[in-house]
Amino acid sequence: MSLSMADLFKRITSGVYVVGVAAGPQRNAFTAAWVMPVSFRPLMLALSINPKHSSFALLREGGVFSINVLRRDQLELAGRFGAPADTGKLSAVAWRTGKTGAPLLEDALARFECELAGECPTGDHVLALGRVVDGVLLQPDAEPLIYRETGDLDGASGLFPDGF
Amino acid sequence: MSLSMADLFKRITSGVYVVGVAAGPQRNAFTAAWVMPVSFRPLMLALSINPKHSSFALLREGGVFSINVLRRDQLELAGRFGAPADTGKLSAVAWRTGKTGAPLLEDALARFECELAGECPTGDHVLALGRVVDGVLLQPDAEPLIYRETGDLDGASGLFPDGF
Questions:
Q1: Interface contact flag, A109 B11, Cβ < 8 Å
Q2: What ipTM did this prediction achieve?
Q3: pTM score > 0.90 for this model?
Q4: Where in chain A are the domains?
Q5: Which one of A12, A102, A128, B123 counts the least CB within 10 Å of its CB?
Q6: Chain B contacts of A9, Cβ < 8 Å?
Q7: Which CATH fold would you assign to the domain A13-151?
Q8: Which of B1, B9, B114, B149 to probe the A interface (max A CBs under 10 A)?
Q9: Whether A120 contacts chain B with CB within 8 A
């Protein structure tokens, strides 16, 4: 457990997202913070994902993902979609299927839909590179949830090494 | 010019950083927002960089980079290091050479030093993957500068396409 390393890395500011994946009739969604734009033309986003996560297999199989931007008041939702269980997370919220087939939260600050354009291994994660094919700013006046404000909701302090 | 696309993508929250690079006696530093952690073990950060930027050649040649986290009151500094000129940007601020050889700002919220561990092309940018070999939280009570709060300081609104 390394609170100080987690504290340090939280100074790399990021938002909090519910990422949706789908392959055929299967779909899932999970909370992530390691998301950023990586290209203007074409429009691309990168998502760093743990390849041991069952949603990674769905992402690869379906080749699509959605990024749903959470608001500051959606901390409880972030916790729910961060839970390890793979079933039923979407059943408790209002969602619909996007043009890519990925699930979209009805209630979010903004959202993006991506087609998987490539992968890049990075340490214990994999970068999923997404070509952004759609996006909408749903609530322009809302403030985004900031990852540092979630405390240790995701248990990341236990995942960092103690030193360099 | 696409203010609405820039507005949308700014909902992917990020901080603002001065990235330092060095190769032999040459060094440079530039402002970037597309930085995020990508692995716990080993500790890794990804930086999305325009390969046409002259600092990219230095980064590749030297194989190291630093990430200096700017505070909310360092907007003017962000603008200065965002200027296209390649010379003299470091001469106007207090900096020192880090253990990797990369330049470090003396006055920053936090900083990281990385060894270049890989690259991954993504559209019009390249992801530089850095193994984090050192880092320090210098000002734990300071608030980080948030990219969305910088307005159109970097002219990004002119770089986004108008549609998907």
A1: yes
A2: 0.95
A3: yes
A4: 13-151
A5: B123
A6: 37, 43, 135
A7: Pnp Oxidase; Chain A (2.30.110)
A8: B9
A9: yes
